[in-house]
């Protein structure tokens, strides 16, 4: 419970106006100092009853006002609210106020020995008329020809008004007199400002909660593209502002915001309907009252606009006038928030007591009959209606007046009267020392302060107010469904309880909802109202330039990124070892690639084994014919060394096939570099021997003594040892190691052997190249030496092929990733090995196997007889 200023205001009214014996110590206001108070016009109430305390009631019994010409040059005419027929729904509200006062006066516990009276006025749904009604209440004079106003107003409080715009005006008029006003239907958030409206209270929740409820509903049903229709008044203005502010924290956008013109014009209505028809928004939120919507909907029906899902506020959602058959094809499925309904046990019986026979002089009762039955109970030349038969019975007429099945605003009127009665009751029972004012005094001074808590129960419901004068935020969720007779029935399908925690306020029974467009049975399919279709997983939203965030394009995620949710704002980058699938909806493990025993690996393996077998076969041939001239002349020991080194070179390729490991990476480059260095060193030794052998035949040259077998072994081992030292330093400093290359092709992980030290790697290759170049130069110098079998020529060709292969290898190796780099290096090893094998041994093997007659020393030296 919270403190409330309502009682203190009632106290101030008692200070200024009440003369009851129980408050005899209260001083009354001094009469005005003016000598005369001329009453220039009167505004008679529709219903009035005398009592100890008078409550004013203001209801929109008509919706149209015939505006008088107020130019100030003559006496203003009386208020004329008879431009249209009586509004039966508001007439029911007025009768509910009368019923509540009657019940209170008959209650022996509540306000004992005191009676309440009432003055009920018609506001015509217009602030100006409501203002004149309040002034008439304050005058307290009913005789038109009274010349002097000498008595203070006996008005205790005012029940009203229906519209927020009217309540703003009336509250400001009542504020200087400290007369509280309790509204039954004014929900504008602006009225919660206690600085501007300290005397205003209401039994309807503030729109502050209603816009929250509507925003929650829009988010709940994923309606992200909606239209907004409001009335041209403070209620519509503040409600629309509140909703827009609430939607800023959501993903809901407003496609358009239109205002029903006041006064309504046909052209203005058609312009709004054109916007609604052309917009892709299929959900329209309405903040407008019955009077504004009635004229608008007449034109809306003629335009035959369907497929709109209406979301109504409390001022629109429970209007029984829209339950007629003609509205259902266009408004069926409407959903919105209605104020909490209650139960008034005697209401139906009390409403039946209102008839022309009982109130023959009451114009409003006559208009009720004309509105319900289209006849006049007392025909005259003015009404131009047929006379009533006198048999018309309210029980048999299903009208807005007799609709008491689910009273909402009616129940609010009932609660408002009881709130005033309980407040006055507590005031009258105030005991000195327990009062609400300074020093806990009762109403005996002008020093007014907010009083104690308001707390009472009615029909099992606990009624109280918060510090802003608002009631508990509670709404029923109402759905418009087709009734058995083709009319519209208002069905409760959920609730909104603003007292609960955030996220738990909204409770919707979706299986009971009938949506717009489904007129035969309840459908589960929720209408779709979006500016852009949802982006499926695998796509992201790209906002269109210059358009709201709800309008976007769906862009596929880039490779390596995913979105596994609908309407993802951005795509998520996959972890380093993962990649996006084809749909870009999940990260999957990257495919690991290395030179394995697939088609390429098998081809290299076969070539490697075949090369090694050829080399061994040549070695076998040379071994079997080791005593022949061609083997002996070409230094058989060096030939076997070369064949041994070539066999190792062919087998080195096998180290490049398979998953890289720490040991295989170190062996790959070091093994092939040492074996090639050994092979080239042997070839270099053979080149030197060939060159020295032919040079030694010249007089004075005895160079062969420096190139004996031991010297040759020393040259080979020394040249090879240099490469061994380089490889040892490489392995000690920064050895090669297995690595995962994820940069070259991001969708794969390429397992490769990193060289560790690029300098060491190129030093190894450079040393082999240096040996090959030196060997090529020496062999080139000896290419023209005499003899039928010049070994220097074959060495020259072999070194030429070797250098060409490895020069082509360098750019190919640098531009190839992972397993392809390994394949390029393996191919270079095989190509150079095959080149050396065929250039150095193919011709010799040919002579040994196929031309044995040429396998003589004389033939080789070119000295055979012809």
UniProtKB/TrEMBL annotation:
Q: Where is the signal peptide?
A: 1-19
Q: Which Pfam families does the entry link to?
A: 7tm_3 (PF00003), ANF_receptor (PF01094), NCD3G (PF07562)
Q: What name is this protein filed under?
A: Extracellular calcium-sensing receptor-like
Which PROSITE patterns does the record match to this protein?
A: G_PROTEIN_RECEP_F3_3, G_PROTEIN_RECEP_F3_4
- Bilayer topology term: Multi-pass membrane protein
Q: Which residues cross the membrane?
A: 600-624, 636-658, 670-694, 715-732, 759-782, 794-814, 826-849
Q: Which residues form the G-protein coupled receptors family 3 profile domain?
A: 600-864
Q: Where in the cell is it found?
A: Cell membrane
